[in-house]
């Protein structure tokens, strides 16, 4: 699966709440969730660390390749056209962050997405890029 151009617009935004859940709200709303205190510095650091996991293009390519389903390391290497060492390094980071699950079958290791946040988060980011693209009429993104 690859990123391609298509129109997609949304008026929703993403906000964080302390219990780790997400809340979609209208852009006209305030920036806090009723009854929830703002995140403290330690919680904000944890959020920043999670966003860092999604900040590397090869990791995003791996996640995109795994959205349809489980794949072996060899399949990912072939599909993404990079080295096995690089794929393995990025898989390890995603696995350690509990984003991916892995299963050994014989002498091969298979990976799959193990966190329900991946696809909605990617869709939210693509929606943001689409809104920006609509303003400049340059590109549109989708996953």
Structural account:
By secondary structure, this protein is α+β, with helices and mostly antiparallel strands. The chain has a single domain, classed as Arc Repressor Mutant, subunit A, CATH 1.10.10.10. The N terminus is likely disordered.
Q: Please report which band the strand proportion falls in: under 5%, 5-15%, 15-25%, 25-35%, 35-45% or over 45%.
A: 15-25%
Q: Note the run of SSEs as H and E.
A: EEHHEHHEEH
Question: In the CATH hierarchy, what is the architecture at level 2?
Answer: Orthogonal Bundle
Low-confidence stretches: 1-29
Residues in helices, as a percent range:
40-55%
Please identify the structural class as seen in this structure.
alpha+beta
Q: What is the terminal-to-terminal distance?
A: 8 Å
Largest sheet: 3 strands, antiparallel
Instruction: Count up the domains.
Output: 1
CATH superfamily: Winged helix-like DNA-binding domain superfamily/Winged helix DNA-binding domain
CATH class: Mainly Alpha
Coarse morphology = globular
Mean pLDDT metric:
80
Rg calculated over all Cα atoms: 17 Å
What brief labels describe this structure?
5 helices; Arc Repressor Mutant, subunit A; alpha+beta; 3-stranded antiparallel β-sheet
In brief:
With 143 residues, the chain is of the alpha+beta class. It has one domain (12-136): Winged helix-like DNA-binding domain superfamily/Winged helix DNA-binding domain (Arc Repressor Mutant, subunit A), CATH 1.10.10.
């Amino acid at each position: 699966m690859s990123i391609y151009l298509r129109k997609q617009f949304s008026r929703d935004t993403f906000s964080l709440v302390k219990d780790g859940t997400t809340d979609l709200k209208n852009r006209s709303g305030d920036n806090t969730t009723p009854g929830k205190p703002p995140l403290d510095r330690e919680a904000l650091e944890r959020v920043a660390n999670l966003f860092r996991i999604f900040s590397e293009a090869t990791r995003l390519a791996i996640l995109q390749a795994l959205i349809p389903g489980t794949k072996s390391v060899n399949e990912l290497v072939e599909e993404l056209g990079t080295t096995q060492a690089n794929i393995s390094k990025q898989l390890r980071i995603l696995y350690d962050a509990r984003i991916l699950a892995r299963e050994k079958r014989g002498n091969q290791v298979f990976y799959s997405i193990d966190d329900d946040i991946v696809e909605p988060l990617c869709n939210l980011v693509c929606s943001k890029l689409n809104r920006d693209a609509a303003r400049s009429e340059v590109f549109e993104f989708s996953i």
